[in-house]
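Bug #77: duplicate submission created two jobs. Keeping one. Sequence:
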Amino acid sequence: MAAAELEYESVLCVKPDVNVYRIPPRTSNRGYRASDWKLDHPDWTGRLRVTSKGKTAYIKLEDKVSGELFAQAPIDQYPGIAVETVADSSRYFVIRIQDGTGRSAFIGIGFTDRGDAFDFNVSLQDHFKWVKQETEISKESQEADTRPKLDLGFKEGQTIKLNIGNMTSKKGGAAKPRVSGSGGLSLLPPPPGGKIAVPPIPPPSSTAIANHVTPPPVQKSCNASSADILLDLDAPAAASKAPVSATTDLWGDFSTASSAVPNQAPQQSNWVQF
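Kept job's structure:
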């Protein structure tokens, strides 16, 4: 009851001109033929609307001006006995109309324009194609509900193991890093802290230069004057411990060689005089 209350009527097709014919009863199994009707003298002329409510379609024949319902034909399936095509034309159909008391009758309808007949036929085909899809979907959902559901939850005490890269191996050591490139070089991962910030070197300031202490100069002699210290000159001859006479030859005479032993007769010199 709740599902029936939610159903609404939708319009599938509207054609402003349709002719209705009273047809003779079919006496054999052969199809209907429009040539047996009085096509030049239709029994009624009006408007045709094709509507749907739920899975049932309705062909409604209405007055053009007032919209009063002349007759309607409920259709449960198409093609079927409720709507049939004729054997000799594509513009004429035979429909089964019903009244509120359950009585039914077969009448013929026809369109002046062939395009109107095509739209009428396609609207019914599309509706029942949708009904077929809805039936299949509903059937699949019912079968899915009847199937036993899989219990994919963890049982009590059940655990799983995950194999994640760069984790500790079975021997207790860390997993080896992957080899990058053809040279076999292994690249270590970057540090966890991101980039290492190197502290900048401060420029030398005037305060550091002023605080710099220069070691005092080494004094060579206490008797040296300040000029000798600044010019780094040798001590004067007077300050030396063993004064040497200007006439004394430090190297001796190259022409003769003195004897190393006193009171010994001089020997012939080995030096060659230049």
